[in-house]
Design a protein that fits this description.
Elements: H1 2-7, E1 18-23, H2 29-37, E2 50-51, E3 55-59, H3 60-66, H4 68-72, E4 84-88, H5 94-97, E5 109-115, H6 122-133, E6 138-143, H7 159-164, H8 168-187, E7 191-194, E8 204-209, H9 218-232, H10 234-237, E9 244-253, E10 257-266, E11 268-270, E12 274-277, E13 284-287, E14 290-294, E15 306-309, E16 311-313, E17 316-321, E18 333-336, H11 343-351, H12 354-363
Parallel strand pairs: 1-4, 1-5, 5-6, 6-8, 7-8
Antiparallel strand pairs: 2-3, 3-4, 9-10, 9-18, 10-17, 11-16, 12-13, 12-18, 14-15, 14-17
The structure holds guanosine-5'-diphosphate.
């Protein structure tokens, strides 16, 4: 069945890549996510950006808007082909390391945040190890450039435009710090360079100077995430007819009972689907009773906290309601049992992940 699903894919119909933000504490992960979420559009209109369960969806229209100035200055024009970008809301590497079920593809691309004033720190190195272990492509946000002495702020500018306007001594300090960071990365066995000097993305990690306070470099992050995803990852971004899904969190919600916050990475999940997830007392087999997402922002006044969906299509974050979820484990893979499937086989496959997940549960 997996082979058939693979054969039916098409490079013309890609899903949104899923992105996580990780790095050392206080480097600005949360702030950067906030800044990316902000829109230039006035009057509360979010430009189509929607808050999902555990994730935020940026439609290509919003990314287009935010990268307009950057793309005007590019010598080589790039056509954006993806529907958008799904960014996981909980920065930090817990959300990443706890979700280690082997079958899951929760994360397609990552942003590793480094404080330009501090360079590589202990959790930066841990994050690097995780990214290496999972072979996740990533870019580095070299954050807090506004803290360089005498930095002049040009809000939301592409970083090269802003750098051009800085004083000589600021550029010197900037270059010194970038140099130091590159050296520290090479001590970790990684080649790196400023992203706009990068001629070989498979050999060099891209450094994107950013400020989560001023928004400088933020267009650059979005542009690079889209460009790298669509030029180098089309294979993992083609729609699959079978689903790839991960349990982010297990939550008790008043009126709904125990629910699962899930990230659907690929495929379509429907109300009434028979599913299997990992449980502390063995595999849990149940039926999807409801699939919920938050109300879009402008419809907040509409009654009811959630919008109900008959079916949902990847990639997105959803709240799943079903019975018997009390012992479900966060990080578990979620699989659907089709009419022709061997339930036992699927249960075994899901439970294969348990060893790794339990280690994490015990550590908590
Ligand atoms: P996290 O722990 O990585 O999520 O870091 P936060 O986003 O909470 O940021 C930690 C601190 O650094 C906060 O006080 C932020 O206001 C500050 N900060 C984050 N990004 C920037 C930046 O680009 N420039 C400056 N000057 N401060 C920043």
């Amino acid at each position: 069945r997996h082979k058939e699903a693979l054969a039916a894919r098409s490079a013309d119909d890609l899903r949104s890549p899923i992105c996580v933000i990780l790095g050392h504490v206080d480097t600005g992960k949360t702030k950067l996510l906030d800044k990316i979420r902000q829109t230039n559009v006035q009057g509360g209109e979010a430009g189509g950006i929607t808050q999902q369960i555990g994730a935020t969806f940026f439609p290509m229209s919003a990314i287009n808007e935010k990268t307009k100035k950057l793309r005007e200055n590019l010598t080589k024009q790039v056509e954006y082909k993806l529907p958008g970008l799904l960014i996981i809301d909980t920065p930090g590497h817990e959300s990443f390391s706890n979700l280690r079920s082997r079958g899951s593809s929760l994360c397609n691309i990552a942003v590793l945040v480094v404080d330009i004033m501090h360079g590589l720190e202990p959790q930066t190195i841990e994050s690097l190890q995780l990214l290496k272990d999972r072979k996740t492509p990533f870019v580095v946000a070299l954050n807090k450039i506004d803290r360089l002495f005498d930095w002049q702020v040009y809000p939301n500018y592409p970083v090269q435009e802003s750098l051009k306007l800085q004083k000589k001594h600021v550029i010197k300090e900037f270059n010194d710090r970038v140099e130091k960071t590159m050296l520290a990365f090479s001590e970790q066995g990684l080649n790196s360079c400023l992203y706009y000097n990068n001629k070989n993305f498979s050999k060099y990690v891209s450094l994107i100077p950013t400020s989560a306070h001023t928004g400088e470099g933020v267009p650059d992050i979005l542009h690079l995430l889209v460009e790298l995803s669509q030029s180098r990852m089309t294979d993992s971004l083609m729609y699959l007819s079978e689903i790839e899904c991960t349990v982010l969190e297990v939550k008790v919600i008043e009126g709904l009972g125990t629910t699962l916050d899930i990230i659907l990475s690929n495929g379509i999940l429907k109300e009434g689907d028979k599913i299997v997830v990992c449980g502390t007392n063995g595999p849990i087999s149940t039926v999807v009773r409801a699939l919920l997402t938050p109300q879009p922002m402008r419809e907040l006044r509409v009654k009811g906290e959630y919008v109900k969906h008959k079916e949902v299509k990847a990639a997105l974050g959803v709240k799943l309601v079903a019975s018997d979820l009390e012992n479900a484990i966060a990080g578990s893979r979620l699989m659907v049992i089709g009419p022709d499937d061997d339930e036992e086989e699927i249960m075994d496959a899901v439970m294969e992940d348990l060893t790794g997940l339990m280690e994490n549960v015990e550590k908590k």
